[in-house]
Amino acid sequence: MSEKLDKIVEELSTLSVLEAADLVKKLEEKWGVSAAAPVAVAAAGGAVAAGEPVEEKTEFDVVIKDPGAKKIDVIKVIRQLTSLGLGEAKTLAETAGGKILSAVGKDAAADAKKRLEEAGANIVVE
Prior knowledge:
Layout: H1 3-12, H2 17-31, H3 36-48, E1 60-66, H4 71-81, H5 86-93, E2 98-104, H6 106-118, E3 122-125
Antiparallel strand pairs: 1-2, 1-3
């Protein structure tokens, strides 16, 4: 391996799991690719350092997968959770993969997911 690659490997090995995941997302966006296999390799590499404490995820995104049959109820809940207007909330409800809340705490994400699912939406917390 070249010296340049050795330096990159050393730098990457200092990243936390969250930082490595962030890096993967940025590289996927920049290059327009999916790094599903490299993520598994990075996670396996992070597992090698068993003596280090694992950082618990503290920020979550609430993502809508499907508004379900009661779209109006889902739009109402989205408006309650965010400061979006009716049109923006409707567009978000109709956008699969749209982030309703971003970088919120675990309790807030769980509460939002519960409320949206009760309204009929299919929600994922990432």
